[in-house]
Amino acid sequence: MNDLSHDDLLRQADEQVLRPCVDVKAQKPVVYASWSGGGLPGIDMHAGVYKALCEAALVPSYNSGTSAGAFLAAAASAGMDPVEVCNFISFLSDSDVKQKRFLWKLRMPWVDSFLRPDPIRGLIRGFLPDYFHFMDQFNGRLSIHATDEKSGKEYVFGPPMDLSGEKVLLEDAILASMSISGIWPAVKMWDRFHYLTLTDGGTVANLPISHHFATLADVILLIVADSGVDSYQGDENMLTRLLRNVDYCLSDQVNRTIRRARVIYGHKVHVLRLPFETPGGALKWDHELICKAYEYARGYIDKFFGGEYVTTGAE
User: pLDDT tens digits, residue range 203-256?
Assistant: First the structure.
């Protein structure tokens, strides 16, 4: 019988998993990246990490993403230039994604969200390359994760699930994964015999893992960009208490996912948890996080992979 405590087992797992599992200089590993949710600041952080990965020749061959992570998972799978990704995101303002519904406070009993979906859909469409329109164009190398609002279960766009051969618009899949209930309206689409009502994937899979991709990879990189539970500072009130408890739930869900991944996949799993607070909340950009996440990711890669950086012209 193992006499170690639960905390000792977690600490032991951390020490084991943080050993380099692939010599990046000796061979080019097959990398699978899981990009977590994290709101608008999460997109900032993921952009910085993506830039660091590309410079270190650790470009993911397979990507899974939820919410903010779906945005960057699609960019990585499309092979977008990391400098262009960071530049595009750094010039975005809150108004580029937020447009409140007319008199939404007075209409709360009759509307399902207080923000209109048009700006965020336009942002997704303008960000992604013109030649990528449908999920099946990624040849089974991308999965985007949402929540089926009626069943409360995870819904996956990409292998091994599909929409019965239907061609799914990439922007629909990303929008569904980002549509936080009550903030943006749910995305409705046909699946075989009924309509799906899809919302933010973070509800059930804030750090999504595809077993299909994980078994094909040499390195499984779990990139966590969710805000810390102490991010909401200031006086205690109804909203900050609610948001803090939501963060507790998401943090616990992510930790459980990481522990399960380590048990199943062992030394292939590496966790890059970004230690940055987001006091502005999930719906406010913080573009300084792009550089902070980039530097943090570079240090992580140097420490645990020993990779030599390959110039991309990014400064």
Answer: 999 999 999 999 999 999 999 997 655 555 555 666 666 667 777 787 889 999
Q: Assign residue 62 a region: left if phi > 0, alpha if psi is -120 to 50, beta otherwise?
A: beta
Helix (H, G, I), strand (E, B) or coil at 209: coil
Query: How much is the pTM?
Result: 0.85
Instruction: Convert 268-284 to b/e letters by CB count within 10 Å (16 or more is b).
Output: bbbbbbbebebebbbee
Cα dist from 117 to 114, 271, 272, whole Å: 10, 32, 31
Q: How many residues does the chain have?
A: 315
Structure tokens at 199: 């919302």
Query: What does the DSSP 8-state code read for residue 136?
Result: G
Q: Tokens representing 32?
A: 């699978």
Rounded distance, CA 300 to CA 27, Å? 19
The three-state secondary structure class of 313 is: coil
Q: Residue 44: helix, strand or coil by DSSP?
A: helix
Q: How many CA atoms lie within 13 A of 270 on its CB side?
A: 21
- Per the CB < 8 A criterion, the answer to whether 206 and 254 are in contact is yes
Q: How far apart are CA 224 and CA 208, in angstroms?
A: 10
Scan for tokens 């409705």, then name that residue: 188
Task: Measure the CA–CA gap between 313 and 315, rounded to whole angstroms.
Answer: 6
Going by C-alpha positions, the residue among 236, 223, 178 that lies closest to residue 203 is 178
Q: Write out pLDDT tens, residues 122-180.
A: 989 989 888 888 888 888 899 999 999 989 999 999 876 654 446 788 999 999 999 98
